[in-house]
Design brief:
Two copies of one chain form a homodimer. Chain A is an alpha/beta fold. Chain A has two domains: 274 residues, Rossmann fold, CATH 3.40.50; 161 residues, Rossmann fold (3-Layer(aba) Sandwich), CATH 3.40.50.2000. Chain A has 20 helices and 13 strands. Chain A has a seven-stranded parallel β-sheet with strand order 3-2-1-4-5-6-7, with helices on both faces. In chain A, strands 10-9-8-11-12-13 form a six-stranded parallel β-sheet, with helices on both faces. In chain A, β8, α12 and β9 form a beta-alpha-beta unit. In chain A, α4 runs parallel beside α9. The longest helix of chain A is centred in the last third of the chain and has 39 residues. The radius of gyration of chain A is 28 Å and the shape is globular. At the A-B interface, α1, α8, α17, α18 and α20 of A face α1, α8, α17, α18 and α20 of B.
């Protein structure tokens, strides 16, 4: 491109256009009900919840009495409901999950391990949901409030069920659902020839054997879908309509706010009621606390490494931690590590462990060289947003698949937590820090990610308000929702046309045979008479 | 929604976010080559061309020496090239087309008539394109300029061919291509069970017979595709690569700017590299000239009617015009009519005919009650933007299908130009003006249409600049482009698995038979020995 910087003019014009456009459609404070999913899912939804409150909407968040991360706040109202489990029970389920990740080897069995863990985690949440649905006083209060929209993560069924009972449109906020139930419920085509199945290890470009694997895994996925959602189907069938499945219920959603974009996922068909808000969690940056700023600034030209394993895993067995400390001792970079375990006596001085760390603000620091992460989408997007290459240790859930996406794009390396050694760790650290290609590629990815017409948080707010203004987004809902599988694939039409064709061909043949016989008979009779 | 107007705050915040986001990615004046399609297609593309120029880009529009509507302007540079036809020849082709529309009856044959007309029109344009491609001086100048992006309408093949020759990414600006070649080239799934085929008269909700019709018409469409694009395929094959089809070439486009949205089209699957800019032509409004303002204001409570048949048809046979004058005489509304034909001596005083009229500004007037239009997408979107119900007379091209979409939504009525009478016209006018449902429905449609996160012109500019900044939009391009039909549908995988299955079943059966025989033999031998 040539001379003449005019971006500020464009910005101003665009801003005025936006302002003018908004002033055409006054928006007043709406009533928003929020049914979040506990754990890291809540962390990015909270950003939208706070923004909606800040903008004047009356937001009520349903908070279970016992939870991992969901809490009350001054930024939004809450409605606390009882659940049939204690904090200890919840923690113990999660601790079992945490322990497993440092011991079990990854592999094809990962898929089944993940499914089992998922079912354990969701079963208890389903029980919590039932408690809420049977809680007459809370349900009456919710019904009387006149909510206009439900913001929920359909990873658990309670949000969609409540939206249906309260007759309000639901906006979904999610990364995706196991076995792609989100795509199935949204009627989004997902051609198996270039859309890789989760955990298949494929990319969008597949060889013939990879396509065979993808095809077969999609069958396996269909089976898993049935196993995984059996509790949800049962709940929906009991509380909404006999025979209705969880997928049927989820398909009623007005809008899908998907926490990814095509710097993370491979391009594929999408639906009109999908909006992509990947990176919504890394919009806001704050300066680092003075001592932390001093520590990372002191790293000089070598820079520093940010190391976290997500909001749910802040600890690891001592032996495992030693591997990391031993490797960190041998590099010139400083390390900021979210770690609540015991420190060894000889802990290296270039490592600062913290109970909690401002991950996004650290990654935004110009001296950040590398991000060691478990590969949750929040962390990945903070890596992409701030253009920091990653060393990834997938632990559970979708992380294995997330990590694969980043490794394939050349912006990360993957190691497995169960067999990492000081040597492999050192080699990986040095490779990513010194091979410039990782940084170049994530710079490119980051530039593309940031370059979008509307920032993710604004886009999410827009669609929430749109659904309130128009009581849904019915103009974006495909008619495929009213078709069954046979109708969708036009198999009845195909069958009908085949029957017609067979009938026509059959009749024509019969006519021909009849005529031929007639002719033959005539010929024989003529010859006989002759 | 409740009290508390805070839209201005939101607007300001959003504006600042936008401004901040843009300032992160400085944009400098880029070099844009534009290959437009003559006729009404050019009218909306011109809006984007002017905006790009205004924003500091160096825009060069390729203008054929002889054209219907494309002309030079102070707002952009032009490169004029010779074509092998005169203005008279071009006009005569178009006149034949114009004459036909007032005589021929509509119906199923419409489809074939449309195809023939289309081929007549495009053949001469293909010849013009060849002249350009063989024009050494012009081609050298284009090659030397270092353009960064090609803005073109792939309705004709010259733009995509030039983009390929000049090795620059192409951004397509279009309403759609005949026989849905746009969707096919973009690898966009189009399930025939709820995506109606053009001219099928179906909507997205179909009965079984309608699905049969849709299914069969999609076969017919495939055949038409071959007939319609034979000249284009030949041109591409000769100038780019032997055996390459027009569809192959078009599929290389970086971005699709589609001049519709889901207030006009029915919701369906889309692709990540599609942006919807329907209504781009009705963003800017100007006050009416004083005399016209006086005329329409004088219409009192009855309001006025805007009557145009598009940029290409400003006249009609006198007998036909009489029908309209006679009907207009009997209504209290005033009429502003774009008409260049002879006025009858007794022309009613409530009708003002004009050679050209500011259509969008008139429709934006609060007294506008009805829009009589041929159903081009430009006019339709001006009707939607300004929430004016429509009486539609489809003439040719996609208009029949466009009109159907509006009639089904209850915001318009349709009459056919060849058999309209004063009585039917009067009845339709009175129905639309006095039955409040038309106005209520178009008000709703208009509200939804306007309610979008980025206005169409800003969105089009954004993607043009994005493609320049990133030399394409490869992260949005699906891998399906590299698959053939068999691979895309995984038919080879399916075949392979069937062979495996047959082999396994066959071998198992053989084993069983072998074992059974062995057992039987043993049994017989035992019995014999006994």
């Amino acid at each position: 491109m040539r001379s003449g910087v005019w971006f500020s003019t464009l910005g101003l014009v665009a801003s005025l256009a936006w302002l003018c456009c908004l002033s055409l459609r006054p928006v007043e404070g709406g009533k928003v009900l929020v049914m979040p999913v506990d754990g890291s899912h809540w962390l990015s939804m909270k950003i939208l919840v706070k923004e909606l409150t800040r903008l004047g909407h009356e937001v009520v968040v349903l908070v279970p009495e016992t939870s991992l991360l969901i809490q009350g706040s001054d930024s939004y109202k809450t409605e606390i409901y009882k659940v049939p489990f204690t904090k200890d029970e919840l923690d113990s389920i999660f601790n079992r999950l945490r322990e497993g990740v440092f011991k079990q080897p990854p592999g094809i069995e990962d898929l089944f391990v993940n499914v089992r863990r998922l079912i354990n985690f969701t079963s208890i949440q389903v029980e919590g949901c039932e408690y809420l649905l049977n809680n007459e006083p809370v349900m009456s209060r919710l019904k009387s409030k006149g909510f206009e929209v439900m913001l929920t993560d359909p990873f658990l069924p309670c949000g969609p069920i409540l939206a249906h009972i309260l007759s309000i449109p639901a906006v979904y906020f999610l990364r995706g659902l196991p076995c792609e139930l989100d795509l199935k419920a949204a009627q989004c085509p997902s051609p198996r020839s270039y859309v890789p199945v989760f955990f298949s290890g494929n990319t969008d470009i597949m060889t013939f054997p990879q396509r065979v694997k993808n095809f077969m895994m999609s069958f396996l996925e269909s089976y898993l879908c049935k196993v995984m959602y059996v509790h949800f189907d049962d709940l929906v069938s009991r509380y909404i309509e006999r025979g209705m499945t969880f997928k049927d219920l989820v398909s009623q959603g007005a809008m899908w706010l998907l926490r990814y974009d095509f710097t993370f996922d491979w391009p594929k068909p999408i639906m009109p009621n999908m909006a992509f808000i990947g990176g919504i969690n890394c919009a806001k940056k704050a300066p680092l606390p003075a001592d932390l700023e001093e520590f990372v600034n002191g790293s000089g030209d070598d820079g520093f490494i940010v190391f976290t394993l997500g909001s749910m895993v802040s600890n690891m067995p001592e032996e495992k931690a030693k591997t990391f400390f031993d490797a960190f001792r041998q590099i010139p970079q400083r390390v900021v590590w979210r770690y609540t375990g015991t420190l060894p006596d000889d802990a290296p001085k270039n490592v600062r462990v913290m109970k909690w760390l401002p991950q996004n603000d650290l990654l935004a620091h110009p001296k950040a060289r590398l991000f060691i992460t478990h590969g949750g989408t929040h962390g990945i997007y903070e890596g992409i947003c701030n253009a920091v290459p990653m060393l990834m240790f997938p632990l559970f859930g979708d992380q294995g698949d997330n990590v694969h996406r980043m490794v394939v794009r050349g912006v990360a390396e993957k190691l497995s937590m169960h067999d990492v050694s000081t040597e492999t760790l050192l080699a990986a650290l040095n490779k990513i820090i010194h091979d410039k290609s990782y940084k170049e590629k994530i710079d490119e990815l980051s530039a593309v990610h940031h370059d979008r017409p509307v920032q993710p948080l604004d886009l999410a707010v827009f669609w929430m308000e749109f659904v309130m203004r128009h009581k849904g987004a019915s103009h974006l809902r495909v008619a495929a929702h009213d078709l069954n599988w046979i109708q969708y694939h036009n198999l009845d039409v195909f069958g009908f046309l085949v029957i017609i064709l067979i009938t026509v061909v059959g009749l024509t043949l019969k006519c021909c045979i009849f005529c031929t016989r007639k002719c033959c008979k005539k010929g024989t009779a003529k010859r006989k008479s002759e």
